[in-house]
Amino acid sequence: MKKLFAFIKPYWHWALLAPALMALEVAMDLMQPRMIQRIIDEGIAQVDMQIVLQTGLMMIGFALMGAIGGVGCTAFSVLASQGFGTDLRDALFAKIQSLSFGNLDDLETGQLITRLTNDVTQIQQVVSMGLRIMVRAPLMLVGSLIMAIITSPPLALLLLVLGPIVLGLLIFVINKAYPLFSQVQDRIDDLNTVMQENLAGVRVVKAFVRAEHEETRFHVTNNNLMDLTVRAARTVAVTMPAMMLAVNMGIVATLWFGGGQVNSGTLQIGALIAFINYLMRTLRSLMFVSMLVMRLARAQASVRRVEEILDSEAEIQDSKDAIAAFDPQGKVVFDGVTFSYDHDRHDPVLKGLSFAAEPGQTVAILGATGSGKSTLIHLIPRFYDITAGRITIDGMDIRNLSKKALRRNVGFALQESVLFSGTIRDNIRYGRPEATEEEVISAAKAAQAHDFISEFPDGYDTVVGQRGVNLSGGQKQRVAIARALLTEPAVLVLDDSTSSVDIETEIKIQDALDQMMRERSQSADLSGTCFIVAQRISTVLTADKILVLEDGQIAAEGTHRELLASSPIYQEIYESQLGNGVTAHVGA
Fold it and tell me: Which domains, and CATH codes, for the chain?
């Protein structure tokens, strides 16, 4: 909880003004029963109309001052709580952005959405209530108790009986409710996860006619949330009736004993009425405290979940002396690289990989599903840290580079092309917002995207729909490739990024990449290396080096001709996809 206090500090002036104004409102409210007592015991009992009028005007004045305090407290508490919530969401989002792939693998999208929205809202509401009701209720409780004792010390002894009863009830309910509220937030996670999966995979659901299955799945998850919420509500529901019972018992006891004192002349009627007012205010304050405690119990569960994110440390960290300035040519060397997702060396995904990619080369990576192709290229920008061995770029161990310096020099076009809301131009410029229009068009042409973009009525200003829904799979992949090319990286990685384009377009893209690599290799200032992960062997025929992976190891390495002559695995892949007809063509 202490970690979250830092987010209220920028709004400390509002956070101090709100309770101060609430204290003013409470003070004015506490004066009202005393004024009523004066009207009855001094004005009405003595038939003194001047006292009645003067006291009535004072009551109006106190009420107006209390109203000013209440309105001011509400306004300032909203300012403080909204600022708190905004900063907390910003901090959570920034923390999520800083986490490594390994951290995000452990955190489901539904959980992150819940913590960034529902959990923050729960805490924000408690902060707002804390600056208003959590100040008002204790002040009113203590103030009413003091005023009740001043008004009638004998009757105040009743509070010694009612107080422990109410306190015991509160402790009982809190102990029962807190675990339930924590489980409720977990169920909200489950609900968001199901909803997020269905929205992302709605086409798959419809294609396999599984709408009824998904509706049932959502219904079950939704009902689980409802059942648990009802259980929590039932636990809390006993509080209010019990509090009202305590209030009514207190009033009956006050009238019973106070009436006797009035008859005996030891207590005036105005004082009895004032005491009943203070008693009701005392017990009503206890009721508010009980409700606040319930909100705190639920918020505490949210606090734990939010702090879990804030306390998370990215698995990939820059070293203390990490190099921030790096301008490589693109020589990439894997030296005995072993990697396991759970850092268990007994079952690694990659096993002792060693190879070199020279500047200007195109290195293709082939292999069956699960052979470790995508894992290999994810290690180059240090999305994951290797378990053993080392990876160098231009002789520099990537662990000695800052993540920003490293990733600024590695361009990525992933198999699953992710586009963001905005225009096509915005998406291509995503890695280089300052790029000129000519550079954007040049990258689009190299990615074979310029022609179809030009056919849109708005051209590069065409707004990309949600997740690029108004573009085909191949179009999205070409925009993603253009985005990677525009950054002019020293290392370009294409992770099966042409799987959705036709063969003719793929050949054009490959020719453009080859031309770019040749131009860069001939430049004194520019060079670069291209890694291509592919399922189609036609994609890699012209590569300078082909790595064939099998079970996390390099089963074969060489050019197309060399592998076709020496590698049975490569020959099998080649024959299954292209056959002998293309052999003659390539050989020619």
Answer: 2-310 (1.20.1560.10)
